[in-house]
Every structure is written in structure tokens, then in C-alpha cells.
Design a protein that fits this description.
This protein is α/β, with parallel strands linked by helices. The protein contains eight helices and five strands. 26% of the residues are buried. Belongs to the beta-class carbonic anhydrase family.
Length: 213
């Protein structure tokens, strides 16, 4: 017999069992991250459990922020605001930007998504109105060509934000979405020293190649 319950019904049913059995007891913590860490990563379903396990992150250890591609598309957007709140209000001293190989945002074409929007009833008139209002839809929706470049760009956006305290160390990593293996793109400890020693904070770190190894 087919299960005709909706996704919402299934979740609420599970939730009742979860609360009634007090499975939350071992998860109780407070709002301040134990590791004084914030992580910006991708919303990819493959790393929902994989990333915390691969990084040794337990409930209460870190503030975790997710979006498509682990990108900061605007310095005054919600992602940057969340990282600033984490650093200024919740004692976060380190931020890790964690992209991943085989990311759906690699080579993502904005026009492809707009075509999907049209198929769901969004009119060309609406898209034209947004563009005429000065909204850079192509820039806002565009992905990246290389995950290493993208991670480094996002690290720089965070580190150079005028409201981000200089004490906050920002790292850049890439995780494999199957094995959980991490590659370092930006070692924030080293680069913070470089920023003090060189005019432009240049680094010799190699960018991660876009593959699934």
C-alpha cells in the first residue's frame, strides 16, 4: 500500500516521536559556538551530514551558514550579515569557507535559470522590469568557473569587509562530496601574517583543481 502522507506530515510525525522520546537531551547546548567557529558552505544535499562528520563538528560547535555554492554575491546581503553577527555578537574568531568539487554552481549560466523561471510562469516582462530597475540578474545568478578561485574570492570578501574585525581569521577549504576529504585553499593563519608583511597580502597557495579526486 502506497504511503500517501505528505512530506510535511511525515516530518511532523517524526517530530512528535523525537520530542516525546526526548532525543534532544544529548543535543542541548547554548547559542555560543563551542569552537568559536562559523562555517559558510554549500546547500548541496550530499554534505548535509558528511561535512560536520568530516570536520569533527558536533551540535553546538559552530555557526553554519549555507547557500548555493558557498558564495557571497553581495557585501551587504544576508550571508555577510550572518557572518558579521557571528563575529560581533557570538564570539566567532574563525570563519571557514568550504566549497566542494562537482558543485552545481560551477559554470552555472544565469540564462538557464531564467528559462526555468519562464517555464514556471515568470514573464519576460517581469525579467525586463527587474533589469530596467538596475538589478544585475546575470551577476546575481552567475556561478563560478573554478571552485578554488571561488573560495578564495569569498574569503577575500569576508576578510576585507569594513565591518569584519581584524582578529577574525578566515580560511578557505574544498571538500569532496563523497569522501569528505578536505583540501586547503587559504590557510588563514598564514595569510593573516602575509597581510602584515606584504602590500597586497599575496599568497602562494595553489588553487584546488576542479575534479572529483
Amino acid at each position: 500500500m502506497a504511503d500517501d502522507k505528505s512530506t510535511l506530515e511525515k516530518i511532523l510525525e517524526h517530530n512528535r516521536e523525537f520530542v516525546d522520546s526526548k532525543e534532544y537531551d544529548h543535543l542541548c547546548t547554548d547559542k555560543y559556538p563551542n569552537k568559536e567557529l562559523a562555517i559558510l558552505t554549500c546547500m548541496d544535499a550530499r554534505i548535509v551530514e558528511l561535512l560536520p562528520k568530516a570536520m569533527g563538528i558536533r551540535n553546538g560547535d559552530a555557526k553554519i551558514i549555507k547557500n548555493a555554492g558557498a558564495l557571497i554575491s553581495h557585501p551587504w546581503g544576508a550571508v555577510m550579515r550572518s557572518l558579521l553577527v557571528a563575529a560581533l555578537e557570538f564570539n566567532v574568531k574563525e570563519i571557514m569557507v568550504v566549497g566542494h568539487t562537482d558543485c552545481g554552481m560551477r559554470g552555472f549560466d544565469p540564462e538557464h535559470l531564467l528559462d526555468k523561471a519562464r517555464k514556471f510562469g515568470i514573464t519576460d516582462g517581469t525579467i525586463t522590469t527587474l533589469r530596467n530597475a538596475g538589478i544585475d540578474l546575470d551577476g546575481w545568478l552567475r556561478g563560478f568557473d573554478n571552485v578554488g578561485d571561488s573560495v578564495r574570492y569569498t574569503v577575500d570578501q569576508i576578510r576585507n569587509h569594513p565591518l569584519m574585525p581584524g582578529r577574525v581569521v578566515v580560511h578557505g577549504l574544498v571538500i569532496h562530496p563523497t569522501t569528505g576529504k578536505l583540501h586547503t585553499v587559504v590557510n588563514g593563519y598564514v595569510e593573516n601574517v602575509n597581510l602584515l608583511e606584504t602590500p597586497n597580502g599575496a599568497s602562494s597557495n595553489n588553487l584546488v583543481e576542479e575534479n572529483n579526486d
